[in-house]
């Protein structure tokens, strides 16, 4: 690891907790619609329209959480590879403050949106 002050066991535990939390939240957001529920968009806002809008919002939130879960899993893989703490793009060390704030960071600030 690039950052000797980072305790790998603590990071592994934090990532495991984060992954479990994300999986649980994704599962809640993507559970099937209850039987007998009707969903539709009509001219008037009613229960069906409200439920359809909520499902679209839930699907969007689940997608965002799945992206974070992918990052967490990549960070876990980097721990196993011995490359945790280095940017996936430039291979330079990721700032320790960034790793403290987001242990699942796999890119430095310069490449965070790459």
UniProtKB/TrEMBL annotation:
Keyword Zinc: yes
Keywords annotated in UniProt: Metal-binding, Zinc, Zinc-finger
Source species, domain of life: Bacteria
Occurrences of domain Zinc finger DksA/TraR C4-type (ranges): 82-110
Coiled coil: none
Keyword Transmembrane: no
Record GO terms (molecular function): zinc ion binding
Cross-referenced InterPro entries: Znf_DskA_TraR (IPR000962)
ZnF bounds (dksA C4-type): 87-111
Name assigned to this protein: Zinc finger DksA/TraR C4-type domain-containing protein
Native species: Luteococcus japonicus LSP_Lj1
Source taxonomy: Bacteria, Bacillati, Actinomycetota, Actinomycetes, Propionibacteriales
């Amino acid at each position: 690891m690039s950052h000797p002050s980072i305790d790998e066991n603590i990071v592994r535990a934090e990532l495991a907790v984060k992954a479990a939390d994300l999986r649980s939240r994704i599962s809640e957001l993507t559970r099937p619609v209850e039987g007998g529920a009707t969903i539709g968009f009509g001219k008037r806002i009613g229960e069906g329209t409200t439920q359809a809008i909520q499902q679209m919002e839930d699907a969007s939130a689940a997608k965002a959480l799945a992206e974070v879960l992918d990052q967490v899993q990549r960070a876990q893989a980097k721990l196993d590879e011995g490359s945790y703490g280095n940017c996936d793009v430039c291979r330079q060390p990721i700032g320790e403050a960034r790793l403290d704030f987001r242990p699942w960071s796999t890119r430095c600030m310069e490449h965070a949106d790459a």
